[in-house]
Amino acid sequence: MTDNIDELERKLSKIKQTKPRRLVMDVLRDAEKPLSAVQILAEIEKTGEQIWLSTIYRILDLFVEKDIAIKSTLLDQDQAVYGLNQYQHTHYAVCIGCHRIITMDNCPIACDSFEPSLREDGFRITGHKIELYGYCSECDKKR
Ligand SMILES: [Zn+2]
Ligand SMILES: [Zn+2]
Fold first, then answer.
1. Is there a single domain that holds both residue 136 and residue 66?
2. How close is the Cα of 51 to the center of ligand 2, in Å?
């Protein structure tokens, strides 16, 4: 984890630090799960700071471009959530009912016995994405 944080600091040092960027960064750093731009805005407003939603989107686009943050579209494009790149290897399950995001503590691909069976040779894997969908226990009860 420490290495990832150093790496993140290195990437951050390459972009100009502005107050809005720092505000967004602070929220992402404290977040335990990826957040949407609207949720980030709400967190910033809690601290009494003012920022436009469009500014947050611009900053998030920059962070994604610079590899500082990861954008995931768990349910659809409108529900994009952003997390720092240090959480890249965390997977999530998303509830179709209430859109709650639940962190997955393991990764099926990270286990040693996993052998991808690809229909083409010589493919060098550099990453993967796993997103689980379903119903949380609360929503499942209502069904
Ligand atoms: Zn739910
Ligand atoms: Zn994984």
1. no
2. 34
- Residue 84 contacts residue 69 (beta carbons within 8 Å): yes
pLDDT at 113: 75
* Number of domains within the chain: 2
pLDDT at 127 over 80: no
Tell whether 25 and 77 lie within a shared domain.
Answer: yes
Are residues 105 and 55 located together in one domain of the fold? no
Q: Do 7 and 47 fall into the same domain?
A: yes
CA of 133 to the centre of ligand 1 (A): 10
For residue 111, report the distance from its CA to the centre of ligand 2, in Å. 9
pLDDT for 129 equals 80
Distance 36 CA to ligand 1 centre (A): 17
Which bound ligand lies closest to the C-alpha atom of 128? 2
